[in-house]
Amino acid sequence: MPTLASQTAQVSATFSRTAPQPIQDVITTNLQNHISTFDTSSVLKPGSILPPFTLPNATGQIISSADLLAKGPILVTFYRGHWCPFCSLALRSLQQILPTLHERGVQLVAISPELPDTSLSTSEKNALTFPVLSDVENAYARELGLVWKMDDSLRPIFEKLGHDLVKGNGDDSFEVPVPATVLVGGDGVVRKRFVEADYRVRVEPGVVLEWVDEL
Question: Angle, to 10 degrees, between the axis of helix 205-213 and the axis of helix 85-96?
């Protein structure tokens, strides 16, 4: 089975081969600026208590971290939106290890700023069987230090590519979460985290299973 890194690299290669150069230049410049300025020290660290959340899932049902933790450890992953091909690959990779996570008593939830209706599309498109939660206006991601306010120079590119964040997210902040994955013990303590300013880089599912083995 190909690694997640090899799949995301293929997406990047296809983009480099097919996207108009002016679009590539703006996206690359913005990404490089974000990578150089994002402060990972502000992100929730291992050993910290996970701040509580209460968020709606794709069908509007309210899911709380307290209820999840009452059943055991949880794996929380943040993604930018259904429009992000790197996010789709990452979500599918976690779906593939979901049976193993459940066998080991770990529950998985994904969080994005998209409205429940949009989250439902994400679940259906990627055949996800774990909860996809809506963090409207990135309120929870902000609490964890995971918000990127994108530059307005990206707006016309998003429009050109058909990515309507105002409709999908319900606000015009033009903010997205920095993709991150956090393993939390049943006691609410963060055990492991993966956070990377370069949204093309995601944690491998095999690494997540190694984390779980260490619980």
Answer: 40
What mean pLDDT, rounded, does the chain reach? 95
List the domain range (segments joined by +) for residue 133.
4-213
Report the amino acid identity of residue 6: S
**Hey, is 183 helix, strand or coil?**
strand
pLDDT of 131 above 80: yes
Can you give the CATH number for the domain in which 96 is found?
Answer: 3.40.30.10
pLDDT tens per residue, range 20-60: 999 999 999 999 999 999 998 889 999 999 999 999 998 89
In this structure, what are the phi and psi dihedrals at residue 176, rounded to the nearest 5 degrees? -135, 155
pLDDT band of residue 178 (cuts 50, 70, 90) is very high
Strand partners, 135: none
56, β-bridge pairs: 62
**Number of compact structural domains in the chain:** 1
pLDDT at 164: 95
Residue 170 sits at φ, ψ, to 5 deg, of 80, 15
Contact 146, 178 (CB under 8 A): yes
The whole-model pTM stands at 0.95
Contact between 141 and 147 (Cβ < 8 Å): yes
Q: In sequence order, what E strands does the chain have?
A: 54-56, 62-64, 74-78, 107-112, 132-134, 147-149, 175-177, 180-184, 190-195
